[in-house]
Write a structure and sequence with these properties.
Arc Repressor Mutant, subunit A; 13 strands; eight-stranded antiparallel sheet; 2 domains; 316 residues; single chain; alpha+beta
């Protein structure tokens, strides 16, 4: 049986910071050790809700009085949402949802028992109008309807997220934006997720990839993320996934938005960043393990990637 609650009734909130830098961290009132969530304003008109929770029982939540576009990526967990106009949508694991909730309406969300891991971008009309003026491509239909109609209907559109979208969501769930640098990184990831999500509906047609090719890209990413992936050449990667080099590199960039080289470099830098934060290893040892013969070269590459030096990252 579902417990019926508003979002505020379900959680205890702790505010960290003030003004635009403020973050609200929340934990369930009934099961405080079952996980956490955070809400943060990364830009005026763009709020982010991060959730990593275990629900011992089902929950029915109510979200009233909004005039927003929500871009929701659910890595784990199932739910059912409906509006007060009768429209309903089933949310399953690993899906991307674009939801328009009109002003003075109410959204009902029934979350099944189990783990819930998700990121939600909550975008105001003014913010999305500004973003639309910067987009060169065609926006998804649900977004165009939101921008063109001042009294839109409750509407939801669900699609499969690209590997890039899933990757960014995983990275955001790993970030605790408590320091100024982490908040900057969180904002960058939120904007990257927004851009990647707005492009999802535009992957159909002549430029779409076969499911077999997408599966190969997934396999290739798993190899690159492994301990041995950083040492494999392009030729060796082609052999590993049984793929032509030109097609492999084109499909990889189409799915992830990055070249294989850039993707691998980012993985190496992310691992180095985590080691600097979570271990006592010296900067020199982190540099050598990342494949750099000289710590100074590593420091230069690290700062180019994150905007701060390895020493500054260790203090974050």
């Amino acid at each position: 049986m579902y417990r019926s609650l508003t979002f505020e009734q379900e959680f205890d909130f702790e505010q960290i910071g003030e003004g635009m830098a403020a973050i609200k961290r929340f934990r369930p009132k009934r099961y405080p050790r079952s996980g956490w969530g955070e809400t943060a304003t990364v830009r005026p008109g763009l709020n982010v809700i991060s959730v990593d929770l275990d629900h011992p029982g089902g929950v029915r939540r109510r979200y009233p009085n909004e005039d927003v576009l929500k871009i929701h990526v659910r890595l784990e967990g199932r739910a059912h949402i409906s509006g007060d106009h009768g429209k309903e949508t089933e949310l399953s694991d690993g899906m991307l949802l674009m939801l328009v909730q009109p002003k003075d309406s109410e959204k009902l969300e029934c979350v099944n028992a189990g783990r819930e891991r998700s990121i939600t971008l909550v975008c105001s009309r003014d913010f999305m109008d500004e973003i639309s003026q910067q987009c060169s491509g065609t926006l998804p239909g649900v977004v165009r309807n939101f921008l063109n109609c001042h009294s839109p209907e409750f509407g939801a559109h669900m699609s499969a997220p690209t590997l890039q979208v899933r990757r960014v969501v995983e990275e955001m769930l790993d970030i605790a934006p408590r320091s100024s640098f982490r908040r900057t990184m969180y904002e960058a990831k939120a904007l990257e997720l927004l851009c990647a999500a707005l492009e999802v509906d535009n992957t159909d047609g002549e430029t779409s990839l076969r499911q077999r090719d997408r599966s190969r890209v997934d396999e290739l990413c798993a190899i690159l993320q492994s301990d041995t992936g950083a040492k494999l050449s392009i030729v060796e990667l082609c052999r590993a996934v049984h793929w032509n080099e030109t097609q492999m590199m084109e499909c990889f960039k189409q799915v992830t938005g990055q070249t294989i080289s850039n993707y691998r470099h980012k993985l190496i830098m992310d691992r180095a960043y985590r080691r600097l934060n979570n271990s006592e290893a010296t900067i020199a040892n982190v540099a050598f393990d990342a494949g750099y013969d000289h710590p100074s070269n590593f420091a230069t590459a690290f700062k180019r990637t994150f905007g701060i030096s390895p020493r500054e990252a260790r203090r974050c």
